[in-house]
Write a structure and sequence with these properties.
binds manganese (II) ion, Isopropylmalate Dehydrogenase, binds 3-isopropylmalic acid, ten-stranded mixed sheet, alpha/beta
Length: 351
């Protein structure tokens, strides 16, 4: 029987509660589809940091490379200064494991409320391919004369030919495999960021010309936000840089029903990849059994697909769809009509 080694990082706040339901569902899907999952837990997060001042030990990072995939809950602790855990754990994993794609599906399931008037599941079904290792996220920059009236703060967006190329190529390949509208939209800002997005635009057309079956489309990031609200049905695959991708996927999460269901994959096609709900650790709900675990469950489904267990992934997605359509009153924490663990049980029931 095929067996997969999964590293699990439950993390902070409601991360562990979400991951618990995800694992419940993963085990049910594995049993149903005759494969095995061997999980190893890692306690990275705020509590460990407060205890040891350690975010991510170097040897653990090496160890993580030996897994088939990583399953992450959420990182972020109210007692830790913003940036420390994000940079020390989440971003460090993305950079050091070279998880250069952040794949974020924006899909509205039947029965789920969207804030967009007159839009339904047939209109909201696209994927954002966010570059995940460059742009404004590299930490390149610094201060001059910090704390003085002459202070200068510089934060540089790094865009490498290779980094942009591999991201755009992934987007075209993914679009072909997805086989829907056969359209990739480059989301940029060529009218202002005339260096960075000049490179993106040139590479986009260069790589894209090798995919004659796929239409090439362009939208500035501000206009992308507008169209995501007004005409989300126009999008199939959106490819963009790290910062714009971060911003537009929060908007994407809202139009697909909220953080309760939005999931993503941090992918290195040649190495180990990491799957996570895209929302934060929601500390105020910690331990209350109120949070919606569907985002973590959808991340688990993405992980199964990535592992090559496509049938199992589909089974989980179908189960999520059934639970949304037939049971949940809302996707928001505390308004679902069910507790966190009951939602996990429901998904398992449909599996
Ligand atoms: C995300 C998050 C992270 C990001 C934060 C927590 C550093 O917002 O995964 O989208 O900005 O990438
Ligand atoms: Mn974000």
């Amino acid at each position: 029987m095929t067996s997969y080694k999964i590293a699990v990082i439950p993390g902070d706040g409601t991360g562990p509660e979400q991951v618990k339901e995800g694992i419940k569902v993963l085990n049910a899907a594995a049993e149903r589809n005759s494969f095995k999952l061997e999980m190893t837990a890692y306690d990275f997060g705020g509590e460990r940091y407060l205890r040891t001042r350690e975010t991510l030990p170097d040897n653990s990072l090496e160890e993580l490379k030996g897994f088939h995939a990583i399953y992450l809950g959420a990182i972020g602790h109210p007692a830790v200064k913003p940036g420390i855990l994000e940079k020390g754990i989440l971003l460090r994993l993305r950079f050091e494991l070279d998880l250069y794609i952040n794949l974020r599906p924006v899909k509205l399931y039947p029965g789920v409320d969207t804030p967009l008037k007159d839009k339904g599941p047939q209109d909201i079904n696209f994927v954002v391919v966010r570059e995940n290792t460059e742009g404004l996220y590299t930490g390149s920059g610094g201060f001059l004369k910090k704390g003085t009236p002459d202070e200068v703060a510089i934060q540089t967006s790094i865009n490498t030919r290779q980094g942009v190329e591999r991201c755009i190529r992934y987007a075209f390949e993914y679009c072909r495999k997805r086989n829907r509208q056969k359209k990739v939209t480059l989301c940029g800002k060529t009218n202002v960021l005339t260096y960075a997005f000049d490179l993106w635009e040139r590479v986009f057309h260069e790589i894209g010309s090798a995919y004659p079956d796929i239409k090439r489309d362009y939208a500035h990031v501000d206009a992308t936000c507008m169209w995501m609200v007004k005409n989300p049905e126009w999008f199939d695959v959106i490819v963009t840089d790290n910062m714009f991708g971060d911003i537009i996927t929060d908007l994407g999460a809202m139009i697909q029903g909220g953080m309760g269901i939005a999931a993503g994959g941090n992918i290195n096609p040649q190495g180990v990849s990491m799957f996570e709900p895209i929302g934060g650790s929601a500390p105020k709900y910690t331990g209350k059994n109120m949070i919606n675990p569907l985002a973590a469950i959808c991340a688990a489904a993405m992980m199964l697909e990535h592992l090559g267990e496509e049938k199992a992934a589909q089974t989980v997605e179908n189960a999520v769809e059934q639970v949304c359509a037939r049971h949940l009153k809302s996707l928001s924490a505390g308004e679902m009509g069910y507790t966190t663990s009951e939602v996990g049980d429901l998904v398992v029931r449909y599996i």
